[in-house]
What we know:
The structure is a single chain. Helix content is about 70%, strand content about 10%. It has 6 helices and 2 strands, in the order ααααββαα. The chain is rod-shaped and about 125 Å long.
Amino acid sequence: MPDPSDQQESIPFTPVPLLRKRRRGWTPDRQRQFIDALARCGSVSAAARQVGMSARGAYALLDKEGAESFADAWDMAAMMGMDATRENVIDRAMHGAWVPIVRRGQIVRMEFRYFDNLAIALLSGRGRDSYEVQEERRQRRKLRHFWRDEDRKRDEQRAAEEAAQKAFEEECARQRAEIEAKIAKQRADAVRIVAF
């Protein structure tokens, strides 16, 4: 029976623009594969491993310039992945699953087991915490982006003020030079008149 998660549509997003193109880097195709893997499993580390990258690199990609669409797709994929994982856990808790029994590094038999601990964990309401954590991460990321934009605006404003101050000082120096030249000319003219 085909896995329904394999038939899900990809989440549309605009890949993060990168300054340098590297063959083993976060290419647009690799970014799409990562988002698809994250939507299937819900784990950033596992999704990054599936595309041959690190989780640290994935998080760094989130903070790059122009990553807003990628971040939104990340949030959606993480939620979809958590839902898929939760459904899998509920299915295993309620219907059981075949588990390999390993002795000395070899599978000796398969046993069918029910997972009461999973059912208890689900019924205790611990699953909501993952959504709260995901929302906190999203809010922190938005806050980091907000402060990064504020820093950029402040730097641009400071640069504009410095440029205006420099232009003002240059204009003052030019006008001072013109006035001094006029005064020197008037003195020279006055000396010539007295000399006659």
